[in-house]
Every structure is written in C-alpha cells, then in structure tokens.
Amino acid sequence: MKLAEAKNQFIQAWGTLGSKWGINRTMAQLHALLMVSPDPLSTEDLMAELNISRGNVNMNIRELMDWGLVEKMHKPGDRKEYFSAEKDIWKITKQVAKERKKRELEPIIKVLEQVSSVEGDKKDRNVKAFVDGISGIKRMANNADKTLETMVKAEENWFFGGILKLFK
C-alpha cells in the first residue's frame, strides 16, 4: 500500500472512531492528519488535504486546542498560523482521559451528590428505588473517576503493567 493511500485510510478510520466516541468526525480527521504529519500544517494545508472549508478547519482546530491535543505555532518570516499535534499516543490518551473526566464525569458526579440527599420516607418504594439507583451510579462514577485520575497521573509502563496483572 502506498503512503498516500495508507494515510487516507488511517485518517478516515480515525474519523469514524472519533464519531463513535462522540467526537466530531472532521475534528478527529484533522487530529489524525496532524498526528501523522512530520511538520506543522497551515489552515490552507489542512483545507487542501481534507477538502474542507476554512470555517470547518478553524472551528475544529479551536476545539482540538481546547482539548489540549493541538498547538498553534508560527514560523519566522511567515504570517500563517501552523498547527501540530502530539505524536506520543500515551500522552494523547492521558489528555483525552483528563478532558473527558473534566467535561463528562465531574459534572455528573456533582449532580449525583446533589440528588443523593433526596427527602422522603425511606420506606416508600419510589424513594428507596431512587436512592438505591443513585447510590449505585454514584459508586460507579466515583470508581471511574479514581481510575481515570490514576491513569492521568500514571506512567505508561506502570499503568499497563497494572492492567495486565488484573487479567492474570
């Protein structure tokens, strides 16, 4: 398989994977392209490579920067902005975990804390079902939070070594 074909296939697959994880397909494709590019790319480079509009590039690059996955840079003597992505997949994985924890898990934990102190007769079937359900979800969310926090702080070898021990 030639490089251009392999690169395109990877970019398309990463876009599909991203959309299954709830990430905009174009955002994932831009990220994929930047991950496999040896040099930073300009907005024009990204537009040409993926055949997308300037607005689409700008919107999705901003989101990738908000996620901490892409950096903006300038080249001396050039007015264009260039973008690059982290190449180390472990650092990428940790950054995505950190952002998902902040954007998704922490808000639901906050809501679970608020609703877990529901008032009512604990003997009432409806109150008991609600309290039991929330308690189970809260326990799982807190365990997920601790696991993600451990992952974000961990070194790659330590983390995967620990996971492998679980399966032995």
Written description of the protein model:
By secondary structure, the chain is mostly helical. The protein has two domains: 3-85, Orthogonal Bundle (Arc Repressor Mutant, subunit A), CATH 1.10.10.10; 89-167. It is 71% helix and 7% strand. The chain contains seven helices and three strands, in the order ααβααββααα. Helix 5 (89-115) runs antiparallel to helix 6. The two termini are 38 Å apart.
Q: What's this model, at a glance?
A:
With 168 residues, the protein is mainly alpha-helical.
Number of strands: 3
- Helix content class: over 70%
The CATH superfamily title of the largest domain: Winged helix-like DNA-binding domain superfamily/Winged helix DNA-binding domain
User: Spatial order of the strands in the main sheet?
Assistant: 1-3-2
Sheet/helix structural class: mainly alpha
Per DSSP, the total helix count is 7
Beta-strand residue percentage: 5-15%
Low-confidence stretches: none
Domain count: 2
H/E order of the elements? HHEHHEEHHH
State the major sheet: 3 strands, antiparallel
Average pLDDT over all residues:
90
3D shape: elongated
The rounded Rg comes to 21 Å
How far apart are the first and last residues' alpha carbons, in Å? 38 Å
The CATH architecture category of the largest domain equals: Orthogonal Bundle
CATH top level of the largest domain?
A: Mainly Alpha
How would you name the oligomeric state of the polypeptide chains in this document? Answer: single chain
- CATH domain fold name of the largest domain: Arc Repressor Mutant, subunit A
